[in-house]
Amino acid sequence: MLSFWRQYLAISPFYIVFIVFSFFPVFFSLYLAFQRWDGIGTMQFVGWQQFRFLWKDPVFWLSIRNTLVIWVFSTVPTLLGALVLATLLHSVRRFKGFYRIALFLPNVTSIVAVAIFFGAVFSNNFGLVNAILGTVGISPVPWLSNPWLIKGVIALLMTWMWTGYNMIIYLAGLQAIPLEIYEAAKMDGAGPVRVFLRITIPILRPIIMFTVIISTINGLQSFSEPQVLFGTNAANASLGGPGQAGLTTLLYFYQSAFMNNDYGYGAAIVWAFFILIVVLVLINWRVVQRGRKA
């Protein structure tokens, strides 16, 4: 092995950066979860006290509920819309490259810029949506004040950003399906809907499982959307808007750790949330696998 020291030296920067900025922080945060620390003073070991307080913390459970509702509101239409768009785009013969770029463009747009745009469009008083509704005689809708509408706006923002990403993945899977299968189905008299349900969906099931897992991980980590929409910072600790309706778990972690300087409790929040994400990913995987066996 010593004879390859030059090769190991060449790839060592990646591993050094990974250990310093990824590997070490993960385990240090686990260590912090059992400490009380404000980031400056001496750490105080408190054992499971942080997690016991977390279990009784109503704001933590509120953030969990908000995160799960936003996740469902965004993930279901994102994946269904992506599958429908991919199927339609797969059948298009002209300008296919243009449509791909146009539908994928939201995913590479700055999430901060998108959140600012959505905040302006859905503004209670001067938003474009309420202006359009006013032209047909509908009273202004409190998009950023009503608890359920707040979650709906955040979910719509996430749907708009991630539909194109999943569509590209589904489109790649559709292009890998041999045309002979579809031709044989048509010869047997199968219609478009039956072909889609009986051939396309079963063949794409591994890809669908992948997108479900990725969407679960991404959807549960919503942070920038409510933070930018409601201007959550040290000077304006609105914590997800009126009634904390947009308070997600990562936003609550940010408030606990970096605004209240309670790094130990913040670490406990993210580790509890990590366990929840793992559980939900395993449930999704089992559901998709069971459908595949059936």
Describe it.
- The longest helix has 34 residues, at 58-91.
- Helix 3 (58-91) packs across helix 12 (249-259), helix 4 packs across helix 7 and helix 7 (147-175) packs antiparallel against helix 10.
- Strand 1 (35-36) and strand 2 form a beta hairpin.
- The chain is mainly alpha-helical.
- The protein is built from 13 helices and 2 strands, in the order H-E-E-H-H-H-H-H-H-H-H-H-H-H-H.
- The protein is globular, with a radius of gyration of 23 Å.
- The mean pLDDT is 86.
- It is found in: Cell membrane.
- It is a multi-pass membrane protein.
- The chain crosses the membrane at residues 12-34, 68-89, 101-122, 148-174, 195-217, 263-285.
- Residues 64-284 form the ABC transmembrane type-1 domain.
Task: Write a compact overview of the structure shown.
InterPro entries: ABC_transporter_permease, MetI-like, MetI-like_sf. This protein has 294 residues and is an all-alpha fold.
Weakly predicted, low-confidence segments: none
Query: What structural class do the secondary elements suggest?
Result: mainly alpha
CATH class: Mainly Alpha
* Rg over C-alpha atoms, rounded to the nearest angstrom: 23 Å
Write down the overall geometry.
Answer: globular
Mean pLDDT score:
86
The domain tally reads: 1
Separation of the first and last Cα atoms: 50 Å
